[in-house]
Amino acid sequence: MKKIALACNYKPEGADPSTGDRYLEWDSPDTIDAIRSALAKDGDVVVIEGDERASERFRAERPDVVFNMAEGIRGVGREAYVPTILEALGIPYTGSDPLTLAICLDKSRTKEILAFHRVPTAPFAVVDDPDDIRPPGNLPFVVKPLHEGSSMGVFDSSLVRDAASLEREVRRVVGDYREPALIEEFLPGREFTVAVLGNGPDARTLPIVEIDLGVLPAGKSPLYSYEAKWVWDRPEAPLRIFHCPADVAPDLERKIVAATLAAYRALRCRDWCRIDIRLDARGEPNVIELNPIPGILPNPDDNSCFPKAARAAGLGYEALVRTVLRTALDRLGMR
Questions:
Q1: Quick one: residue 212, left, alpha or beta (phi over 0 = left, psi -120 to 50 = alpha)?
Q2: Which terminus of the chain faces fewer neighbouring Cβ atoms within 10 Å, N or C?
Q3: What are the backbone dihedrals phi and psi of residue 295, each rounded to the nearest 5 degrees, phi first?
């Protein structure tokens, strides 16, 4: 029986997403327990936190394979931290390699590669200095931190329609997150997120999830913001914000799938990823960002999109986790 390590970062006790975004990407004990339980069907499982002691823990445990969910603890290369350790130790793991993880956490580098491969993505600019803002085109824009995920730093106020609001949001991002701000042309169309499983020609999309921003409170920005994800949509008062499978015409579905798989391959993702798509003013799909370590909350009431798409494809939570593991084992020649 294989020895499987689950690499993760525990959300600190008492951390509540509705009161701050510091630990949004880290997993709750319930999520980690659910993943561990699923992996236990395929081997003996040990949980290793992706912190400063990770290297010595991996060296001591010497697992046969690592199921990587670790977000890392700090810095622009944090998601690459655990896979880099595993590469050095020669321990195989699920998911994308350190280079892909580091690039995908940098929204501008991701968009540069997408543009090179002619995968549609919104025009953008990166701003280090709030006193030197050079917009990528015409208002409105969305302003967000360059190196964050899970809607960290993306608030209802992040959609800006005038120069004063643009400067305010850039100053907020640079000041609060100590990193550059990404200014991105606002795409006014529908929003989707697409789960991908597999490698090479076998990579496939799961049923498309639409994020229905029309159900947000009246007068709010049509963004899947921090408030939309963690404040207005709660298990005790859920928003009917997701539709899966999305109600899209066959031609649009083909375009969304094509853009998703093109982005997946351009960034050299492995095993799985969730890719966010938004339609521009002409109704054409644009890639917003890639999430190569996608969140997989086990409770359906939490509206976690990858498990939602998996359920629509006939994969329950345990089956999803085991499918990711087996996809990696096939790639590694370890089945």
A1: beta
A2: N
A3: -70, 140
Q: Indicate the domain borders of the chain.
A: 2-103, 123-185, 188-332
Cα–Cα distances (Å) from 11 to 8, 35, 157, in that order, read 10, 15, 26
Asked: is 123-185 a CATH 1.10.10 domain? The reply is no
Distances (CA, A) of 122 to 31, 107, 136, 174: 33, 11, 10, 21
Q: What are 309-330's pLDDT values in tens digits?
A: 999 999 999 999 999 999 999 9
Give the CATH fold of the 2-103 domain.
Rossmann fold (3.40.50)
Q: What is the pLDDT of residue 148?
A: 86
Residue 126, Ramachandran bin (φ over 0: left; ψ between -120 and 50: alpha; else beta)? beta
Q: Higher model confidence: residue 306 or residue 25?
A: 306
Strands (E), the chain: 2-8, 43-49, 65-68, 124-127, 141-145, 159-160, 181-185, 191-197, 204-205, 209-211, 242-243, 272-279, 285-291
DSSP 210-249: EE-GGGSPTT--SS--HIIIIISSBTTB----EESS----
Mean confidence (pLDDT) of the chain:
94
Taking each helix axis as running N to C, give the angle between helix 317-332 and helix 29-39, from 0 to 180 degrees, rounded to the nearest 10: 60
Measure the CA–CA gap between 316 and 308, rounded to whole angstroms. 9
pLDDT digits (tens, 9 = 90+) for 93-106: 999 999 999 999 99
Q: Hey, is 185 helix, strand or coil?
A: strand
**What pLDDT shows up at residue 18?**
53
As beta bridge partners, residue 184 has 124, 142
Distances in Å between the alpha carbon of 110 and those of 35, 94, 170, 192, 266? Answer: 28, 21, 20, 18, 9
CA 102 to chain centre: 13
Distance CA 304, CA 288 (A): 18
* Cβ 45 vs Cβ 66: under 8 Å: no
Res. 230 pLDDT band, cuts 50 70 90: confident
Residue 193 and residue 277 in contact, taking contact as beta carbons nearer than 8 Å: yes
The CATH architecture one would assign to domain 188-332 is 2-Layer Sandwich (3.30)
